[in-house]
Design goal:
The complex is a heterotrimer of chains A (155), B (378) and C (276).
Chain A: H1 4-13, H2 22-29, E1 32-37, E2 42-44, E3 52-58, E4 61-67, E5 71-78, E6 83-84, E7 98-101, E8 105-111, H3 112-121, H4 123-149
Antiparallel strand pairs in A: 1-8, 2-7, 3-6, 3-8, 4-5, 4-7
Helix pairs in contact in A: 1-2, 3-4
Chain B: E1 6-9, H1 12-22, E2 26-33, E3 36-41, E4 52-57, E5 60-65, H2 82-85, E6 89-98, E7 101-104, E8 114-119, H3 121-135, H4 142-150, E9 152-156, H5 167-170, E10 182-188, E11 193-199, H6 202-209, E12 214-215, H7 218-234, H8 244-249, H9 256-263, H10 269-273, E13 280-286, E14 292-299, E15 309-310, E16 313-314, H11 319-338, H12 348-351, H13 359-369
Parallel strand pairs in B: 2-8, 8-9, 9-10
Antiparallel strand pairs in B: 1-11, 1-12, 2-3, 4-5, 6-7, 6-14, 10-11, 13-14, 15-16
Chain C: E1 10-21, E2 24-31, E3 44-49, E4 53-58, E5 69-74, H1 78-84, E6 91-98, E7 111-117, H2 121-133, E8 141-147, H3 156-163, E9 169-174, E10 177-178, E11 184-185, E12 202-207, H4 210-222, E13 230-233, E14 249-250, E15 253-254, H5 255-258, E16 261-263, H6 264-271
Parallel strand pairs in C: 7-8, 7-12, 8-9, 9-11, 12-13
Antiparallel strand pairs in C: 1-2, 1-6, 2-5, 3-4, 3-6, 13-16, 14-15
The structure holds flavin-adenine dinucleotide (FAD), iron/sulfur cluster (2 copies) and FE2/S2 (inorganic) cluster.
One iron/sulfur cluster (SF4) binds next to α12 of chain B.
Amino acid sequence: MVTRHKMSALLREAPLFQDLDERIVDLLAGCATNVSFDAGEMIYREGEAAKQFYEIRRGDVALEIFVPGRGPVTIETLHEKDVLGWSWLIEPYRWHFEARALTRVSAISFDAICIRGKCESDHELGYELMKRFSKIIVERLQNTRMQLLDVYGHI
Amino acid sequence: MAEKSQVIERDALDDLLKVLREQGYEVIGPTIQESAIVYDRIDGVSDMPVGWTDVQDGGSYRLKKRTDESRFGYVVGPHSWKKFLFPPELRLWRAKRDDAGFKILEEREQTKKYAFIGVRSCELHAIFIQDRVFMGGKHVDPVYKSRREKIFIVAVNCAEAGGTCFCVSMKTGPKAQSGYDLALTEIVERERHYFTVEVGSERGQEVLKELQHREAKHDEISAAEGRTRNASEQMGRTMDINDLKELLYRNYNHERWENVAERCLSCANCTMVCPTCFCTTVEDVTDLTGQYAERLRRWDSCFTIDFSYIHGGSLRKSAKSRYRQWMTHKLATWIDQFGTSGCVGCGRCITWCPVGIDITEEVKAIRESEGGTHGDQT
Amino acid sequence: MGTFEPMVPEAYRVRKVIRELADTYTLELESVSGSPLHYAPGQFNMLYAFGVGEVPISMSGDPSQPHLLTHTVRAVGPVTQAICASGRDSVVGVRGPFGTPWPVEKAVGKDVVIMAGGIGLAPLRPAIYSILQQREKFGKFVLLYGSRAPENILFESELHEWRSRFDTQVNLTVDSASGNWKGNVGVVSTLISSIDVDVSNSLVFLCGPEIMMHFSILELIKRGFSKNQIYLSMERNMKCAIGFCGHCQFGPTFICKEGAVFRFDQIERFFRIKEI
Ligand SMILES: Cc1cc2nc3c(=O)[nH]c(=O)nc-3n(C[C@H](O)[C@H](O)[C@H](O)COP(=O)(O)OP(=O)(O)OC[C@H]3O[C@@H](n4cnc5c(N)ncnc54)[C@H](O)[C@@H]3O)c2cc1C
Ligand code: SF4
Ligand code: SF4
Ligand code: FES
């Protein structure tokens, strides 16, 4: 177990928490733990309750969906410093995709219930976190739209 | 070279045509065909539209009898000289399959030696512009060049402006300043009908020597000047070219393009009649045996959908984008490409547009929407 | 009419055909007359299929081998299909070289980022060869490549070869993958954040579909590259390649003469104008 103080220091390195008020970082650190996954291990499965999100510290993760007749199709891969998962943020708090470790992965895991509780009681924290997640969500959405364009099919 | 204006009498024009023919030129000049004045081979003044004029406006053209016997009493028609220097269809080469794959067949043809009779000042400028396109870059169009180098140009200074002309705005007329061998100003008076003649080259001088001529008198020179002044003053259309390139560059997304697209039929008439448009397409074909192949070059137009096709679709699908390409090319991008405007103000595109779209009006509309300002708005 | 010299193709014999992908072939050509064709990376030729037609295709081979002309062609229509169907020892016509090169010389002493999407890797391969042949003259060398799916990755074995060099960073990504793909999934612009170069002292060579280049440029700029460090290759219909036919106009430029490789800041003004 890392101390809360050490966890705060780790969080400050992550792009998600860049330039965030120390008070808020400390609050978030209270909901965080270090986790690791072996290559091939499922981090979460489609339909399961989304009880956490992750900040990847090392390793690669594939977001997959099972397509009948095609098997698992990778939608996106995520890497060091990327944030994994936002279904914890939006009702009904269930994963839409599956996340699988491609290599050995170490990550910081955030407890969703803990964080949601803090967001409710501390709106400044809630707003800061929402801003940061919206940015990530919009970037991913833009990338997804580009994938939809199927640009190479059309060169 | 004679520095001073010369004079030839009316009937010496026929002698001029004869001298040129004798010197081996194929003489091309204005004729009447299918109710329009077009350039074609002429054997004498009798083939020319003597005593005719043209009445032109946006989307309309008609010929009318004059009350005099003017030889050049009209302006420009649907054709321009470019069809002789830059033929509408040209075979670029022929090839035959052989052991080494294929062989290009040698072809030799005597280049035609043309004499152009009645080239207007705007048309001379159009030729200068095409010179830059076809001979001014790294690659040279060999057909254009060989024909261009041999032409003998008899220019005519306009005495009356046409209904759609705006050469004064474009600084291309109405008086020919250079680039001709001989330049005529036709003067029809009650008692007398003659031409003043400017000599622009040694060749012009040689030809003039064969004709009965003398130095122009003071009153003849001022009569000629009066004719040119008259044409300038009559000109009904204008185009403000100040900062025009930047005006169009900053207005690629102007709503006026939508407005003109609603009227434009994408018929490509404006590009076909324009004396400077140079776009072509190529067609590769084989004969039935597959042993011979050839490549043809044809005039093309940026108004067709295929013009901008790349795998996946055409890049200029909307009529708006194609009209914008045409007008922006003529008046703006051309300047970056060739150092001159691509428009000489001849008015053909206005006359021959079936719905009378007027390039001068389109520029005005965009300019006025900016409050008629000049200068960069950055 | 005599022959129109600048439009006359020269006969080249097909020495080798390599099937790269389901629809993409590399042809190695040798001039029937035996004369070499010197070119710079990024330039293109007009390739002629006898009686069928002529299309612009970039060189994709090693520019230090002027006797062996290499083109990689994706069969998308009549002419490219005919070219791809040319068997060994058949003959195609060649006119060229045309167009502007990738500024390999300007990149000496700098880090180089090469970024390609789909068939766009083919026009960049001569630049990759040139850089690797004089690797010591450059700083870091990064190659980012995106394709539609793992089975559409062009020059795959060469990419692995380059990746195994200690002096070259190669990052691949595909838009989607199923099966055994262990690599990145996501659009190519997502690779930009991971590269480790001296942003202020580097050049970027970019080639792919226009929309892919657009998004990549946005990311590059976010990453701190300036517009005059980015070079890209543009594509338009081409009928002549010598500045006469007018088809390749892109704003005030003729892509066949002033392109296909442009420095981004020089065309930025026209780049995202719709239907220009
Ligand atoms: C500078 C340049 C370099 C290129 N390099 C390569 C390359 O290395 N490999 C490759 O596979 N392709 C390349 N292309 C694209 C290639 O030229 C087109 O795929 C080809 O013209 C399609 O012709 P087609 O007759 O087979 O197909 P169609 O789609 O039926 O084309 C019909 C006609 O449209 C025109 N046309 C269609 N698509 C294009 C296009 N993308 N660009 C220009 N004109 C087009 C051509 O005149 C063609 O004859 C390049 C294009 C350019 C402009
Ligand atoms: S692009 Fe259009 S306006 Fe320009 S020369 Fe060609 S046909 Fe004429
Ligand atoms: S654009 Fe119109 S007015 Fe200008 S040169 Fe062409 S035809 Fe004449
Ligand atoms: S391809 Fe003909 S002008 Fe560029």
